[in-house]
Structure formats: C-alpha cells, structure tokens
Amino acid sequence: EFISNVSHQLRTPLTSIHGYAEALLEDDLSNKELVRKFLNVIESVSARMTRLINDLLDLEKLESGDTKFNFAPVEMCQVMDRVYSIVEPLAHDYGVELDMECDEPKVVWGDFDRLVQMVLNLVDNAVKYTSTKESGEKRVIARCYEKEGKIVFEVKDTGPGIPEDAQKRLFERFYRVDKARSRKVGGTGLGLSIVKTIAERHNATITFESKVGEGTTFKVFFDKYKEEEKPSETTDKQKVGK
Fold first, then answer.
1. Element (H, E) at 210
2. Are the beta carbons of 106 and 143 closer than 8 angstroms?
3. Are 237 and 101 spatial neighbours (Cβ–Cβ below 8 Å)?
4. Where does the Histidine kinase domain lie (predicted)?
5. pTM of the shown model
6. Which of 38, 42, 114, 181 is 20 to 30 A from 234 (CA-CA)?
7. Fold of domain 72-239
8. What is the number of alpha carbons within 13 Å of residue 113 lying toward its C-beta?
9. pLDDT digit string, tens, across residues 53-87
10. In angstroms, rounded to a whole number, what is the distance separating the alpha carbons of residues 11 and 5?
11. CA angle, 211 as apex, 210 and 213 as ends, to 5°?
12. What is the pLDDT of residue 88?
C-alpha cells in the first residue's frame, strides 16, 4: 500500500510536467505569455515533488531511527521565535493574523532543530488551511504554557475544521482531509505524520480538537525539564517575534 501511495503521489505531478513540456515542444514559442504560464506550472509542480520527496526521506529516517537527535535543554520561546520569523511573512501574504506568545521560561529536554520542524509544520498547516476559508475571521494563535506539570505547546486556528469521520485518520501517511484544499496549499499528506513521529521521539503526547466551520486546536504535551535552574519568575508574556 505504501509503494502504491508513493507511486500515485509521484505519477500525478510527473504526468502534469510531461504534458506541459510536450505542449511547449510542439509550440513555436512565439506566445511568450503562454510559455511563461506553462513554465510556472512546471516550476510549481516540480517544487511540490521536491517537498514530497524530502518529506518522504525525512519521515523514513525518523521512523527507522536513523536520524540522530541532539538532546539538550530547549527553551520553547526560542523555538517559537524561530518559527514566527519563517511563517509570519507567509501569514501576511495569505491575509491570516498570526499571534504567537509564551510565558517564559518553558524548558523541555529536546532537539532544537526537530522541535522547530514540528512546531513549523503545525503552525504552517494552520496558516495555510485557515487561508482557504472563504469568509469570517482568519486567525492562528500559538502559545506555550505550563499545566499540571507539563509544558504544553498549542496552536489554534479559525480554519475550516476537520470532519469527525476524518479525524481518526489524520496522522496517517498521505491522508488528506480535503484533497482540493491540500492541492491549493501544496500539502504532501506527510506533515502530521512527521509531527507525530517527532513528538513520540520526545516522549510527548499530541492531541487535537476540531469542529467543522469553527477551526482546529492541536496540543503537544511535553515533560518539563526537571534539572533546569529557574530564573526569576515573571508574569509578563513575551510576544514572539515582536
């Protein structure tokens, strides 16, 4: 089944590239506007294939244990700040309000780069799918806080939501709730599988709640880093990226 899914995911864009390339070869290339249009499609589809292959290789390494994790105390506010700097321009272009904040200090035992990858996937997904909403508020709120001895990372969006019958398959490889929306935002169907695998490698638990028409909330529960030297307490919230 896995080989079948991979073959299907690659065959579709390859067929598209072949079709447009063939059309260009048969054309006299005098219509520069049409040529540019076809080349843009080829570039876009090629980029999607690259993302798919990269995600496949990444997921395979993560699940096989071949990926080395460099564990150390990680400040989640720094993770969120890195993600904000990457996603905020995209959110702005999509017309989505992005708000990220956390109460310092929130330290977990983890791999900084992989935590950035996990948080980036969740926030990026939230922004992209919220942008497909036809009307109403378009907002994504990500925050990190402590609750009952756990460090919780949460991302909440006002997007289209996930139908109840699709929720049980959400973390499956290649599963996409709405294929039309996924094609529009360039989804590969592997992002949440990667998120789940990274969370598991950190002994973290991931949950979500969703309602169609109202949005989705993902939460990742980490064990608090127990050997940290706690700095002086503060009640101020840090606006990430501000």
1. strand 205-211
2. no
3. yes
4. 5-226
5. 0.70
6. 114
7. Heat Shock Protein 90 (3.30.565)
8. 4
9. 776 777 777 777 777 888 999 999 999 999 999 89
10. 10
11. 130
12. 93
